[in-house]
Amino acid sequence: MTVQRKTAKARKSSAPTAKSKATPKAKTTAKAKATPNAKTTAKSKAKSRSTTRKSKSPARAKRVESAAPPKVQRSQSALHTRICEMFGIEYPIIQTGMGWVSGASLTSATSQAGGLGILAAATMTFRELEQAIAKVKSRTDKPFGVNMRADQSDVMKRVGLLIREKVKVASFAQAPGERVIKTLKDAGVLTMPTIGARRHAEKVQAWGVDAVIAQGQEGGGHTGQIPTSILIPDVSAAVDIPVIGAGGFRDGRGLVAALALGAEGIAMGTRFLLTKDSQVPDHVKQIYLQTKANGTVVTKAVDGHPQRVIRTLLIDQLEKANVLTRFPRAALNALSLMKVTGTSLPELLEEGMAMKQNQELTWAQLAMAANAPMLTKASMVDGRIEAGILPTGQIAGVIDEIPTVAELIQRIMVEARETLRRLGA
Ligand SMILES: Cc1cc2nc3c(=O)[nH]c(=O)nc-3n(C[C@H](O)[C@H](O)[C@H](O)COP(=O)(O)O)c2cc1C
Prior knowledge:
The chain is 54% helix and 10% strand. The chain is an alpha/beta fold.
């Protein structure tokens, strides 16, 4: 593929392409983008846009051609994005925080293999989180993250822990408030919420987050309505901070595709769940492997919010049940969760009120929301498939083996380089 043809392609795209981000010029721009100063950021974005516009001129295309480094190096630098520098990781691959799944072993294995592992803390007690952080640190000295729920009653205590332990990244299922972001940011902890729509990305960027995970509808767990292929370019054209694509990724081709769409890396849940390092019982992993791409469903029946899960008998029953029949079961499970997470009744009520206010839930939805972690635990920890729910991405339908995390990450990087070569990049 000649440079001219690539330039013509770039013309069609309103967002800077992964390739253009990797050129020496764009690298400087990217660096400037990473500065906290909003004015500099806006300026550098404008500069980046004008760079893209300028590249339309044939004279400039020629200059780019003569300045281009050898092929292999260019492929490698395309895979070394801003998030590698920002998070201090070797590869632009993130293992997301999955409740009951992303424990110390999965997180440390990912970080040790050159990606960013994230502990799922929303389903951990404060003490468990302390222990998990200590365990990760005993296994790797590489950076890792912690995923939290910003509406947890002890969120500021957890924020304090992350700061004391010098955790690199705090990730959030929903947008954390400005206070949480500022406290973490002032202490040098990077913040990265997951969003499912452009306007949410714009909002959290204005609040000062450092990066966003843009999760498309094919993703596992709570998920939005916009497919990944539409969401990534839309979000990355709208914000200056790095965008990490999520929802439907499993290999190196997907990584290159995400970069081409404007992301600076991929975040994967289901693919990491299906590794030897994840703590999910083997027979539960087998259920995921047997699931077909059309064997998942997005349902509100679990906790009132759209969540992608494997379609099981229980899900069918929950979907058919009316709110009145769901409510008693939900309330009972919420009480069991109190025991598991060590939450007291006043704390549960306080948390419930915060959730009700923040997410505008009805009481019935609130009971279901409190219930959901117990349903997930029943499958993912206790292995009781019939009693629990199995959150998953659609990608489970095309995953058929269980590698180690180290094998997976190496394989993705080899495939990504091969893909770039195949495309003539
Ligand atoms: C079993 C499971 C549990 C999850 N739990 C959480 C969670 O606790 N917090 C969160 O922010 N996202 C959670 N998610 C979403 C993932 O972090 C991730 O964004 C999603 O799986 C990406 O899509 P993929 O599965 O196609 O890779 C969960 C996903 C799964 C599959």
